[in-house]
Task: structure prediction
Amino acid sequence: MGFGALNIERNEPVFHHEWEKRALGLSLCAACLGQWTIDESRHAYERISPRAYLRASYYEIWMRGLDTLLVENGLVAVGEIYGTEPRFFSEGDNALIVLRPSDVDEMLSSGPSERTCGRPPAFRVGDRVETKNLNPKGHTRLPGYARSKRGLIERVQGSYAFPDTNAHGLGANPQWVYTVVFSGREVWGEGADPTLTISIDAFESYLSRA
Amino acid sequence: MLPTRSWRFKLRPPVEMESLMTNSHGGHDNDHSHLENDHENHYSDMEARVRALETLLTEKGMIDPAAISEIIETYEKRVGPRNGAAVVAKAWTDAGFAGWLAKDATSAIASLGFGERYGSRMRAVFNSADEHNMVVCTLCSCYPWAVLGLPPVWYKSPAYRSRAVMDPRSILSEFGVTLPATTRIRVWDSTAELRYLVIPTRPTEAKCMDERELAKLVSRDAMIGTGLVTTVKPSP
Result:
């Protein structure tokens, strides 16, 4: 079932290779340039071909995604990365925010990312809802297994940028987010573990009243 | 735009790009000569790619390598499961803190000096005799960095991400954890900007331990929900 057995490494080190350390830092520093949102980076990772994605290590996925983000945002040309054309260096772009060592602590603990939503929440704790059967071509945070499922609103979690638009340069469009709880049986059918419940954090437009 | 500088690294491009290379025999920095020796090693290729990209972005003035080093230092030395263990031990010994954690984990955790990257909202979920909590991110690898550090490889693997929501007991058994058949299992799929910290049950035999001793018992896995806390000290 699923993707097979786990490979649990006892006493796992924080990093397995020196390059992983630099890849982590490079990704975070590049994100701080302010040229793309976290949803755009997730979408960049999702566009790696499934065969390559499933074989790639975590930081390799990050680096492949970073190539895409840099090129798509016009910061780097493909040939500059692969060495097929000369590198060009600008004299400095004021729109870019370059992360300095003194800013790292603040960047890593920048406080909640909630965004004000202009309307009150449509659902309340205890409401019965059904997730919509949405299958967008682009990025979404509604997992496949949780589509067209009936559940209960357990908590209103605040309002956040809507990934389905924020990943595509279509604006933050903040929405209310709800913790929605499903029974294992609702999600997996008859044979499901009877003691299992699963919750997702669902954006309001994923939900309809049930 | 000024064309400048010679190659510092030779990046091996995908095969189809090799014929397009104009400078495929460029030199190496001395300290990178091991790349040649590890020619067949996948990771030496990654090493070259990462170094090349870091050099490119540094020369373009887009990143400061010292900031990268600072980030590495943070996750190697300062931020890791020890932070989460401190939160758990405080919750076990201070009912007021536990109540605050249940209601507003973001603020309660921040009061101990741990703030979440990208400003994610924290939520603490409490195990009990009747209910066991387990955390997964099926869509990517969302994880509470501020309290647990960087996620272990298994947490990010397709195997864990697919099976945690389908059959969590089979995952638990691979971790050597068997729960009573009647214990309810609650799986939290981290699909938005919320990050979850599992507060394990306090081992009953640890009654006379203080907060610091208790913190040493709390493993990373127990705070993800794939482990339990016992009085046997976890391996680091």
In short: Strands of chain B lie at 2-3, 121-126, 131-136, 184-189, 194-199. The first strand of chain B starts at residue 2 and ends at 3.
